[in-house]
């Protein structure tokens, strides 16, 4: 069985994690055959229009004023954010950049107002504010303890981001029946050939 491709289809996925899960998986690197179907990865954020559409579908961008239109700079920042998020989930020191090379910085202000709660603002650009909401989701997940259950499948031809909802919280594969079995079969074949 393939892992769910939509965050809303993942059982036990906390609401705050859904945005991170879906954003990280806009880069689909799966490239294998599963149940007779060839998976070929794709980038759901190929153009500024794709980014704008994705942000609107996730209620991060509203209205149709000219400043709500994504441009190439927004797309570049969104891809950098996604790459850094995926590297952090992979926990690979080379990809994450121990020297900070893999870090993406966002400056924003959180304003607390009596009777209105907290409000996030990032300058006047609505698209950058939408991207900052993704950063805030990562921060919130870190603070509330759900970040450590968001993982990346270690299969090189998969790398799907998944939420580990197992009781012990030690799931390794996005799908034990699919990627787990493929890895075990490959290891078995390597042992047999030597």
From TrEMBL:
Domain of life: Bacteria
Pfam families: ABATE, zf-CGNR
Stored SUPFAM superfamilies: Jann2411-like (SSF160904)
Record-annotated Zinc finger CGNR domain positions: 149-192
Protein name: CGNR zinc finger domain-containing protein
């Amino acid at each position: 069985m393939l892992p769910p491709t939509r965050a809303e289809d993942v059982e036990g996925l906390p609401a705050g994690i859904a945005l991170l899960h879906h954003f990280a998986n806009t880069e689909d690197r799966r490239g294998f055959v599963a149940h007779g179907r060839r998976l070929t990865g794709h980038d759901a954020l190929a153009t500024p229009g794709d980014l704008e559409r994705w942000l609107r579908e996730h209620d991060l961008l509203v209205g149709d004023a000219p400043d709500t239109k994504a441009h190439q700079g927004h797309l570049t920042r969104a891809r950098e954010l996604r790459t850094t998020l995926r590297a952090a989930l992979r926990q690979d020191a080379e990809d994450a950049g121990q020297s900070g090379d893999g870090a993406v910085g966002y400056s924003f202000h959180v304003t607390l107002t009596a009777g209105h709660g907290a409000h996030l603002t990032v300058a006047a650009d609505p698209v950058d504010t939408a991207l900052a909401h993704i950063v805030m989701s990562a921060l919130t997940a870190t603070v509330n303890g759900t970040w450590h259950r968001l993982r990346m499948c270690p299969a090189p031809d998969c790398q799907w981001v998944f939420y580990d909802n197992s009781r012990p919280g030690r799931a390794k594969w996005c799908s034990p029946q699919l990627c787990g079995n493929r890895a075990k079969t490959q290891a078995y074949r390597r042992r047999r050939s030597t």
